[in-house]
Write the C-alpha coordinates for this entry.
Amino acid sequence: MAQEIERKFLVAGDFMPFAVRRARMVQGYLCSDVERTVRVRICGDRGFLTVKSAANERGWSRYEFEQAIPPADAEELLALCLPGTIDKVRHWVPVGRHTWEVDVFHGDNEGLVVAEIELPSEEDTFTWPDWLGEEVTGDPKYYNAMLAKHPFNRWPQE
Protein backbone atom coordinates (compact mmCIF):
# COMPACT_ATOMS: atom_id res chain seq x y z
CA MET A 1 0.00 0.00 0.00
CA ALA A 2 1.50 3.35 -1.07
CA GLN A 3 1.50 5.99 1.65
CA GLU A 4 1.57 9.68 0.76
CA ILE A 5 2.99 11.92 3.49
CA GLU A 6 2.50 15.52 2.54
CA ARG A 7 2.50 18.99 4.11
CA LYS A 8 0.74 21.91 2.44
CA PHE A 9 1.38 25.66 2.76
CA LEU A 10 0.20 28.91 1.24
CA VAL A 11 2.84 30.79 -0.75
CA ALA A 12 3.72 34.26 0.52
CA GLY A 13 6.68 35.21 -1.67
CA ASP A 14 8.35 34.82 -5.05
CA PHE A 15 9.35 31.20 -5.67
CA MET A 16 9.62 31.54 -9.47
CA PRO A 17 13.37 32.27 -9.68
CA PHE A 18 14.01 28.89 -8.04
CA ALA A 19 11.64 26.74 -10.14
CA VAL A 20 13.39 24.17 -12.33
CA ARG A 21 10.41 23.00 -14.39
CA ARG A 22 6.68 23.39 -14.74
CA ALA A 23 3.67 21.68 -16.30
CA ARG A 24 0.02 22.52 -16.80
CA MET A 25 -2.41 20.16 -15.08
CA VAL A 26 -6.12 19.67 -15.57
CA GLN A 27 -7.92 17.31 -13.26
CA GLY A 28 -11.39 16.20 -12.31
CA TYR A 29 -12.94 13.81 -9.81
CA LEU A 30 -14.94 10.67 -10.57
CA CYS A 31 -15.58 10.26 -6.82
CA SER A 32 -15.06 12.77 -4.05
CA ASP A 33 -16.29 12.14 -0.53
CA VAL A 34 -14.84 12.18 2.98
CA GLU A 35 -13.46 8.64 2.76
CA ARG A 36 -11.95 8.60 -0.75
CA THR A 37 -11.28 10.43 -3.98
CA VAL A 38 -10.78 9.08 -7.47
CA ARG A 39 -9.02 11.64 -9.64
CA VAL A 40 -8.30 11.87 -13.35
CA ARG A 41 -5.37 14.12 -14.28
CA ILE A 42 -3.72 15.27 -17.45
CA CYS A 43 -0.23 16.62 -16.83
CA GLY A 44 1.41 17.88 -19.99
CA ASP A 45 0.99 15.01 -22.43
CA ARG A 46 0.46 12.28 -19.80
CA GLY A 47 -2.69 10.92 -18.16
CA PHE A 48 -3.13 9.53 -14.64
CA LEU A 49 -5.81 7.86 -12.57
CA THR A 50 -5.35 8.28 -8.81
CA VAL A 51 -7.19 6.88 -5.79
CA LYS A 52 -6.66 8.50 -2.38
CA SER A 53 -8.07 7.66 1.04
CA ALA A 54 -9.03 10.12 3.74
CA ALA A 55 -6.07 11.67 5.58
CA ASN A 56 -4.99 10.60 9.05
CA GLU A 57 -5.82 12.66 12.17
CA ARG A 58 -2.99 15.15 11.56
CA GLY A 59 -3.92 15.50 7.90
CA TRP A 60 -0.40 14.51 6.80
CA SER A 61 -0.68 10.90 5.62
CA ARG A 62 -3.04 8.91 3.45
CA TYR A 63 -3.15 5.97 1.08
CA GLU A 64 -2.45 6.86 -2.55
CA PHE A 65 -2.54 4.70 -5.66
CA GLU A 66 -1.60 6.32 -8.97
CA GLN A 67 -1.52 4.69 -12.38
CA ALA A 68 -0.45 6.23 -15.70
CA ILE A 69 -3.14 5.93 -18.37
CA PRO A 70 -3.20 6.96 -22.03
CA PRO A 71 -3.98 10.68 -22.43
CA ALA A 72 -6.95 9.87 -24.70
CA ASP A 73 -8.44 7.73 -21.92
CA ALA A 74 -7.86 10.54 -19.42
CA GLU A 75 -9.69 12.97 -21.74
CA GLU A 76 -12.66 10.58 -21.96
CA LEU A 77 -12.73 10.06 -18.20
CA LEU A 78 -12.61 13.83 -17.57
CA ALA A 79 -15.93 14.06 -19.41
CA LEU A 80 -17.44 11.68 -16.81
CA CYS A 81 -16.16 13.61 -13.79
CA LEU A 82 -18.23 15.46 -11.23
CA PRO A 83 -18.80 19.18 -11.90
CA GLY A 84 -15.77 21.36 -11.21
CA THR A 85 -12.36 21.06 -12.81
CA ILE A 86 -8.98 22.00 -11.40
CA ASP A 87 -6.74 23.94 -13.77
CA LYS A 88 -3.27 24.77 -12.48
CA VAL A 89 0.39 25.07 -13.37
CA ARG A 90 2.71 23.06 -11.15
CA HIS A 91 6.24 24.32 -10.57
CA TRP A 92 8.95 22.09 -9.11
CA VAL A 93 11.25 23.98 -6.74
CA PRO A 94 14.25 22.22 -5.14
CA VAL A 95 15.05 23.41 -1.61
CA GLY A 96 17.62 21.56 0.46
CA ARG A 97 17.15 17.80 0.04
CA HIS A 98 13.48 18.06 -1.03
CA THR A 99 11.61 19.36 -4.04
CA TRP A 100 8.53 21.48 -3.42
CA GLU A 101 5.55 21.35 -5.76
CA VAL A 102 4.05 24.82 -6.09
CA ASP A 103 0.61 24.97 -7.70
CA VAL A 104 -0.55 28.23 -9.26
CA PHE A 105 -4.29 27.83 -9.80
CA HIS A 106 -6.31 29.23 -12.69
CA GLY A 107 -9.98 29.36 -13.63
CA ASP A 108 -12.33 29.39 -10.64
CA ASN A 109 -9.35 29.08 -8.27
CA GLU A 110 -7.38 31.99 -9.77
CA GLY A 111 -5.30 33.77 -7.13
CA LEU A 112 -4.59 30.70 -5.01
CA VAL A 113 -0.98 29.50 -4.80
CA VAL A 114 -0.19 26.45 -2.68
CA ALA A 115 3.12 24.67 -2.01
CA GLU A 116 3.32 20.98 -1.07
CA ILE A 117 6.19 18.87 0.10
CA GLU A 118 6.15 15.07 0.14
CA LEU A 119 8.15 13.48 2.93
CA PRO A 120 9.41 9.94 3.54
CA SER A 121 8.02 10.00 7.12
CA GLU A 122 6.01 12.29 9.37
CA GLU A 123 9.14 12.80 11.47
CA ASP A 124 11.23 14.05 8.53
CA THR A 125 12.44 17.65 8.69
CA PHE A 126 12.76 20.08 5.79
CA THR A 127 14.17 23.47 4.90
CA TRP A 128 11.58 26.25 5.17
CA PRO A 129 12.05 28.54 2.13
CA ASP A 130 11.61 32.32 2.51
CA TRP A 131 8.62 32.33 0.14
CA LEU A 132 6.59 29.90 2.25
CA GLY A 133 3.55 31.18 4.15
CA GLU A 134 0.95 29.74 6.51
CA GLU A 135 0.65 25.97 6.86
CA VAL A 136 -2.75 24.65 5.74
CA THR A 137 -2.05 20.90 6.05
CA GLY A 138 -5.22 19.10 7.06
CA ASP A 139 -7.52 22.03 6.21
CA PRO A 140 -10.01 20.37 3.84
CA LYS A 141 -10.86 23.57 1.96
CA TYR A 142 -7.36 23.46 0.40
CA TYR A 143 -7.69 19.90 -0.93
CA ASN A 144 -7.98 19.92 -4.71
CA ALA A 145 -11.12 17.78 -4.52
CA MET A 146 -12.74 20.44 -2.33
CA LEU A 147 -11.49 23.27 -4.56
CA ALA A 148 -13.29 21.57 -7.46
CA LYS A 149 -16.57 21.74 -5.49
CA HIS A 150 -16.01 25.05 -3.67
CA PRO A 151 -13.58 27.16 -5.72
CA PHE A 152 -11.35 29.77 -4.14
CA ASN A 153 -12.99 32.70 -5.97
CA ARG A 154 -16.33 31.85 -4.31
CA TRP A 155 -14.97 31.87 -0.76
CA PRO A 156 -16.25 34.68 1.47
CA GLN A 157 -13.80 37.58 1.59
CA GLU A 158 -11.97 37.53 4.92
Notes: The CA atoms of residues 24 and 83 lie 20 Å apart. The chain has a mean pLDDT of 95. The longest strand covers residues 21-32. The beta strands are 3-11, 21-32, 36-43, 46-53, 61-69, 86-95, 98-105, 113-118, 132-135.
